[in-house]
Queue: 2 jobs
Job 1
Amino acid sequence: DAVLLVHSLLLRKMAPHRRNILHVTYHVKIDTVLDLAQLGLAAREGTTLAARDLYRPEGASDAAFDAAAGTLTIKGLPPHRIHLVGVRATDRASVAKATAQFAALGSSLPPELPPTVLDGGLVTPQTAYAAPGQTPEIQASAGIRVAAWRLPDRVLLAVINAGDGPRDAVLRVDLDKLGITPRLPWQEFVGVRQLHAELNAPAPTLDFYGRTLSLRAIPPRGGRVVSIRRH
């Protein structure tokens, strides 16, 4: 996947007299031609190319992506602002399979994979799925069910409160067996990100040395989606 950073510059026009300075502000239109092959995003049979705004400043339009032409268009980008756009290639068969696995978990999880899951490259033909109770590397506290989608350097977790009242989830995570422990000291690190949760849900916390992942106050029959990744 690729993340594109688009930056606009403020254009300034100075009047003949030094005391009269006129700032002319332009909201620009930007057309970008992407070499998708060089980015590793060349169209292949069974894949879908898509773009999504990761950060859009006020006043700018949504990014328009033409996968066939390889062009990305942004209108109305204000001066000195940054617009972040992610372009991803997803395998349709893998997405369909993961969507069915996700929907089968029930609870308050959405019936389809959140876009943030696809943005993170977490669903590929190489992704290995383990239903709740089938991942010995992850031990959950009482009343918590955990499904996992694994790749060599990352894992996606659906953490579900199976009870009738709010519950904290404490997961014992064997990062070594999952292959997520950093291999290059001071060059790699482990990050945790909440990809789907109810409104105002507390952020998850990872105790790297204690090998525990904590999610506080999951609602009854509720679920959250979290990724752990070696960067």
Job 2
Amino acid sequence: MTELIDKSQQNIEAALALRTSLNLLAPSVHCAYYSCVQLMIDILIHDFEIPDDEIIDEAKAHDMGTHEFASSKIFMDLKSKKEFQSANNFNNTVGRLRRKRNLADYKLFTVTPQTSKNAYEEALIINTILKKHYNIED
């Protein structure tokens, strides 16, 4: 297991614990989101063979932030493999989770238990798609 996969697993576990045991809803959304980002970055490094120190430059070259670049590359890759249902589910779910994370982290927005639960469930969907299509084991 790579370091990023391990961090991803820690973040999804933290998201659940923050939500259910500690009632810390905003950070639970943050951790759920970053669990997915860490898997996506690991895929860029190991499957797309983009060195980790070049990912930011690659993203900038495409006028994107790192997170958007990673999700875009994976979306396009899934489409190129004719995995259209997974590609669309991935892309739509990432968009929903990203919006929740932005609200939770940067806006005057109260994260409800339902929002936190939805974020956690969306992260599980995204991570399941990534693990399935890029052969990542738990």
